[in-house]
Each structure stands twice: as structure tokens, then as C-alpha cells.
Automatic annotation (TrEMBL):
SUPFAM superfamilies from the UniProt entry: TPR-like (SSF48452)
TPR repeats, residue ranges: 157-190
Gene Ontology BP annotations: negative regulation of DNA-templated transcription
Protein's name according to its UniProt entry: Tetratricopeptide repeat protein
Key words, A-Z: Membrane, TPR repeat, Transmembrane, Transmembrane helix
Transmembrane regions: 12-32
Pfam family for this entry, one: TPR_16
Highest taxon of the lineage: Bacteria
């Protein structure tokens, strides 16, 4: 049976992990300061591609969407019945939901190393390992995992974007910017990468270039909460407090109960108190 590529961790899960990196990175990226969500979104897509294809795997993935404990129990039972890498992969994803991203990352790396699946599938598993390392607060290991993945799939823009995030978390902003420029050469309309690029430019103290980038993102996606949050920060840096408040209030309106909204609320409070924004 031909292996299929496993799911990439979704951005909300990655953002939650980046919160943990803030202490080590000193606030390298604007979203590092977002409050940690009490719930971690498990990287289960509604459809393939996935690492393997079986009824047991589908059952395990469906459990992941609802109950990480149940998914782990199922994966362990399935593994005892010869479930192989499908069972190990499901259990690694369950570890993320159970608050053990470091163990998950290590297991995902082992799966990628030992698997006989295609290069694309193994690269995707390494990409998941990289994102799990970010959740564990280890940007250096995340960088290593995504770099290894990119040796297998050098044009994968998901992996390139994830490596840029790891670089930024290590305060290697110039390298992150170069990586994001490469992403946008391949996928010019990728709003996520444009927002990340604006953040890198801001951290390089290129505020006007950052503003041009974020306006490009908001032209494509006017209510993108991360873009609105970033533009608010840029407005604040330019002394445009009213515009900053407007953007942060818009974030709360369009994306309530998200890390972006929580950070926008914090920035509004800091602005009211006359303190620097995050």
C-alpha cells in the first residue's frame, strides 16, 4: 500500500507552542507573548494525506479529535496487535494533546527515521516533529527537524515557513526573513508568511518595510487577526495610538477567545496604562 503524507500541525497548535518559547527566546516573535491556550488543537485533518491508510488509523484519528486519552489507549492496544507505524504515529499525536510535546517530537523523529514510506511522508513527519519541538520550547531542535525534512522536500513551503518560525524564535531574524522571502517566491499569496515576514522586519527595526508587508497581508485578508494584531503594534511604534487601538479592538471582534485576541486585549490594557506593547 502506498504511504500518504501525514497532516501538518495547524497554526493554532504552533502558536500555542511558541508561547512556551518566549521565556527562552526573550520574546523573539510577536506571538510568543500570547497566553497559552488551555486546549491544544491536535493535527488531524478532515481528509488525507496521512502516513498510512487503514480502518484502525481512521478510528484512532477520529478519537484524537475528541479525546486524547481515548486515542492513546486505542493506539497502545492497536500497537499490541501489530499496528506498526500507524499506531505509533497516532500515539505521538495523542501525546501532544496530553501535554507531552517533547515525547511526541522524539517519537515522530523515530518514525521518520525508521519508516519505509516515501520521502514526502517522512518529511511531513519530521515537520510535525519540528512543530512539536516548538511546543516543547526547543527552537533549536525544531530547526534541526525542519532542516532535515527540507533535505527530502526542499520546495515544501509549509516546512520552509516552520523553519522561519524556529529561526525567529532563536532571534535569527535575518535568516528568518530570507526563508520567508523564499516561501513567498514560491507562494506569493501566502498570507501567513507575509504576516511572519512583517514581524521579522519589525524585529530588524525596519518598521516602514514591516508596515508595507502587513498592508499587503490585510489587502488579501482584511480580517486576518494576526495581521491586524501586527499592524496595531506597528501603529503603536509609529505613535499612532488611535489606529493601534482600532486594530486590536478589531482582532477581539473578529477572533474572540483566540491567542491573538488575548494578546490584543493585553496590548489595549498596556496602552491604557502607558506601558510598552508586546
Amino acid at each position: 500500500m502506498e504511504a500518504v503524507t501525514p497532516p501538518r500541525l495547524p497554526l493554532p497548535a504552533l502558536l500555542a507552542g511558541l508561547v512556551i518559547c518566549a521565556a527562552a527566546a526573550g520574546g523573539a516573535w510577536w506571538w510568543l507573548h500570547a497566553p497559552q491556550s488551555s486546549q491544544v488543537e491536535i493535527p488531524v485533518p478532515p481528509e488525507p494525506p496521512r502516513l498510512t491508510d487503514s480502518a484502525e488509523y481512521e478510528r484512532c484519528l477520529s478519537l484524537l479529535r475528541e479525546d486524547s486519552d481515548a486515542a492513546m489507549a486505542y493506539a497502545e492496544e492497536w500497537a499490541g496487535q501489530g499496528g506498526g507505524e500507524g499506531a505509533r504515529h497516532c500515539s505521538a499525536l495523542a501525546m501532544i494533546g496530553l501535554g507531552a510535546p517533547e515525547r511526541a517530537a522524539e517519537q515522530l523523529e523515530r518514525i521518520a527515521r525508521d519508516s519505509q514510506a516515501s520521502a514526502a511522508a517522512r518529511a511531513a513527519v519530521l515537520g510535525q516533529a519540528g512543530q512539536a519541538w516548538m511546543m516543547a520550547g526547543d527552537a533549536a531542535r525544531a530547526y534541526g527537524a525542519t532542516t532535515m525534512a527540507l533535505t527530502m522536500e526542499p520546495q515544501d513551503t509549509d516546512l520552509m515557513t516552520d523553519r522561519a518560525v524556529a529561526l525567529a524564535a532563536m532571534r535569527r531574524y535575518s535568516e528568518a526573513l530570507q526563508e520567508l522571502d523564499n516561501v513567498l517566491r514560491l507562494d506569493p499569496d501566502r498570507v501567513e508568511a507575509i504576516v511572519f515576514r512583517a514581524s521579522a522586519l519589525r524585529n530588524l527595526e525596519r518598521v516602514e518595510d514591516a508596515m508595507r508587508a502587513i498592508q499587503q497581508a490585510l489587502t488579501a485578508a482584511p480580517d486576518n487577526p494576526e495581521a491586524l494584531l501586527e499592524r496595531g503594534i506597528l501603529h503603536q511604534l509609529r505613535g499612532e495610538e488611535g489606529a493601534a487601538r482600532e486594530d486590536w479592538e478589531r482582532v477581539i471582534s473578529v477572533a474572540p477567545e483566540t491567542p491573538a485576541a488575548e494578546l490584543a486585549q493585553q496590548n489595549l490594557a498596556l496602552n491604557e496604562a502607558g506601558l510598552p506593547q508586546r
